[in-house]
Amino acid sequence: MRCLLVNPFCPITEGPTPPLGISFLGAVLEQAGYETQIIDFSVFPYSYDILHQRLQQFKPDLLGVTSVTMTFNAAIQVVEDAKKIKPDLLTLMGGPHVSFCAHETLSAFPSLDLIVIGEGEQTIVEVAHQALNGRNWSQIKGLAYRDNNKIKINEKRDYLDVNTLPLPARHLLPLGRYRALHTPISITTSRGCPYRCIFCVGRKMVGARVRYRDPMAVCNELELLSKLNFPQINISDDLFTAKTAHCLAICDEIIRRKLNITWSSFARVDTVSSDLLRKMKEAGCSTISFGVESANREILKTIKKGITLEKVERAIKMCSEAGIQPHVSFILGLPGESPASLRETQKYGDTIEKLGGMYGFHLLAPFPGTAVRDENEQYDLSILTDNWDEYHANHAIVETDSVDKHTLNAIADEWDVETKKQLEEIRIKMKKGVATKEEAWKIDNLERFLFIYQLMMERIIEDYGTWELGKADCSREQAIQGLAERIHEKMKQPLSRTKEILEYAVGRESIFYSTNGTRVKWEWRNYL
Questions:
Q1: Separation CA 56–CA 46 (nearest Å)
Q2: CA angle 238, 244, 248 (to 5 degrees)
């Protein structure tokens, strides 16, 4: 039994990081004895031919694809192509999008055999076992399937004990590519969210009761991650600070072990204190993200956020005093949004900055499973499209009674123009030799990110990274020089800058070369 798991294409604007959920699925399948591979199309180019080659090489019996709403169309394309290549392949999909529209998805896409609803680790192992033993899906909880052309959705599965999970199978991921992009790597210390925000599916996906991992096990994993040469670790819990004792136990153990790590987390403004923040800072926390969503008090009540602006300001101040960078996110286009509330929220961004924080805007995306979508008749909200590609929160897909899509898009466009303007101003300062180190790094890192992403998605290393040298010996400097000469025009970069970025990628343990006789071959170092 062979299982191929797929992470579908995700736009570069979303800042791709090593996928955690699919790594857990790979881990439980391997633990159950099933040979498993992961292909990650966030950092690999996708095409029918590439998928065909992978299916021919690995010969999987089961294809499992994950997706969120924004990546669903890319995910279902993989499923449909796979069925054309191998019609007897068992296909399934999981993730928050299909968990909340399983019936519609199975009705619309006959190439998809099964849908895993909610947490997938136990379900996918049972599916793999049943695939070998009669394919009777009726007893597997958390599964949607077809039976005699009728769609059936089985009983919901109970939430699992997070301390029974193995470590994520990161050895199946192309970590070298992510290291080259200088992205963070993620970890979870809990699952669950006790809050009821009407724009979020977190509570429905992972439950209202927070399930905590053993702090010692968390720190064992953090210690492993500290050796993987990533610039930062993201604690991707819905709410890392949900339970102070849990948070402190992890911080104390990080400090006791003297782990040299930098990490970020998500929090609510009403779940932090000065003492907790100082401890988090001592343990390596650099950034905390707070979802504030709106500066309008009525909208905060409508969306059931349960916070006040006074608590927001207090939390931002405490973070700044503790030496942690606070970041606030706002959602525009929420129910009740008006021109006045938009101005209120935009102006409040200045308040955040004055207190030492940073902020950013997103536009509301009414995902399947959220109250703003499922209970839409209660709100002054018009949903303009079900084209899932547009659910990336950077383009208006809703309108309220007094704010249309053009108004929302104008704000998003203005934000984008201002960001580009700031970057251009830094470039001018760099040319004049007056940019700060931090400013210069921002530009350098962005340009390097785009360069390396192009290397990946256009298969530059694969297509240009092998040549005959004419002699048996080849130093690292010669190998880098040779590759730079072969690709710099293709990359539209000066030879010197190309060499510089290639040196960086080698130093990040992302690419390497080998020699065989007089042949030089460059490759991605894809795994651990």
A1: 16
A2: 105
Q: Judge whether 33 and 65 are in contact, CB under 8 Å.
A: no
For residue 466, how many C-alpha atoms fall within 13 Å in the half-sphere facing its CB?
9
Count of other CB atoms within 10 angstroms of residue 443: 16
Yes or no: say if 186 and 236 are a contact pair by the CB < 8 Å rule: yes
Spans of all domains in the chain = 2-153, 184-358+368-374, 458-524
pLDDT at position 12 over 90? no
Report whether 47 contacts 59 (CB < 8 A): no
Measure CA 271 to chain center: 24
Which pLDDT score is estimated for 14? Answer: 85
Mean pLDDT, the chain, integer: 95
pLDDT above 70 (res 106): yes
Q: Which of 245, 314, 318, 324 is nearest to 283 (CA)?
A: 324
CB-CB contact of 303 with 330 (8 Å): no
Is 299 a residue whose pLDDT tops 60? yes
pLDDT for res 528 = 56
Token pair listed for 498: 């190309």
> Exposed, middle or buried, 136 (CB in 10 Å: 0-12/13-18/19+)?
exposed
Rounded Cα–Cα distance for residues 352 and 314 (Å): 11
Half-sphere exposure of 312 (CA within 13 A, CB side): 29
> Token digits for 292?
């504030």
The CATH H-level superfamily of 2-153 is Cobalamin-binding domain (3.40.50.280)
From the list 214, 217, 118, 236, the residue with the least C-alpha distance to 167 is: 217
Residue 521: count other Cβ atoms within 10 Å of its Cβ.
14
Structurally, at CATH architecture level, domain 184-358+368-374 sits in: Alpha-Beta Barrel (3.20)
Whose structure tokens read 């992470």? Answer: 7
| Residue pair 461/511 in contact by the 8 Å Cβ criterion | yes
Cβ atoms 115, 102 nearer than 8 A: yes
